[in-house]
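Table S2 (continued). Query chain:
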Amino acid sequence: MRGDVEQGFSLDLDAFRAAYSRFLAPAGDAAPRILLTGHSHQAWPDVARDALAACFDDAARLVDGKWDAAVLPRLSAVGAAILERMGFERGDAIAFGQNTHELVYRLITSLPRRERLRIVTTQGEFHSLRRQLARLAEDGVEIDWVSVEPRHALADRLLAALRPGTSMLAISAVLFESATVVPRLDEIVARAAEIGAVPLVDAYHAFNVVPLAWGSAAPHVFAVAGGYKYAAMGEGICWMRVPRGCELRPVFTGWFADFGSLAGSSGGVAYAPGGARFAGSTFDPSALYRAAAVIEHWDRFGLTVPRLRAISLRQTGRILGLLDAAGRGGDVVSPREPERRGGFVAVRSARAGDVVERLRARRVLVDARRDVLRIGPAPYLTDAEIDQGVAALVEELGR
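Corresponding output:
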């Protein structure tokens, strides 16, 4: 039993680990692995595998009838649970996509075109947004790339960049390279809305590990996240929370964005209300089945986002302590303060990619972004596994 999460709650770690038998003890593997990849590809619980079979069986039983009988009910239930875990109301609007990029680009194509677009972002955004904005800049969109360093003054620089005439704010809630929780997020988003900019927050590195308090920003914010990382749902399931009353009309649109128009057009391109206006077209529903099963898994073990946060902070704190004890504390680039630290620990190394490969050969899995190693614990790890994994990391850093 692990009783260090919060008063009155303890996680039965043995039972929890047993729910991950396929990932923690994969068939054909003689030596155990230490999965310090909880920030990237978190292990899937066994129920995700069962969900894939259920998706096939529903298709075989219902054929085209699967959409109304099985898929749409899951879509509604999964959307409500996701919104709650993101810190929004369960009845808010939500749009689903295969990845956050398609949702973000649909939002960008809905921005008014009366004048030159101006988008405020940071130099610390994930590759898909950075690449897309860089390409738009080649076509004349003004992109204000706000430096993330020094991090303590990031909020002030973003607020200063948000001047009238800005079309969009596009920033992360947690920076993907350093695990820094962006400070004063609600204030930044509220400022964007005040000047008429569309506020977009990439909450991928916050979902299911860092609770977000939206405050006065809640009525205005578009927030994207997905299932690949801390949600343990796998690929192909991403979403965007859409503010109530949104009337934006994305140019990049699919036929799912207005089923009603199939019966006959009344002129012009119609859009469904709520999140459906950002929908695409036919999708593979198997990811939705996985998502529904994994949400039930979190609920079955009582793992709310605050409880997952408490586990994560204890584990990342343990990693920091081990690095300090080994004389590697100076290489850490993640915040030390718990309230400013996301779900992993980042360590700078000139040959980060080589270290990743050497650790993989030792059955310890981490990843790297440029010259930064990322060490991501997860709730199914034991303290002994964390200790062993960090010890191997320290050895490889010293080579």
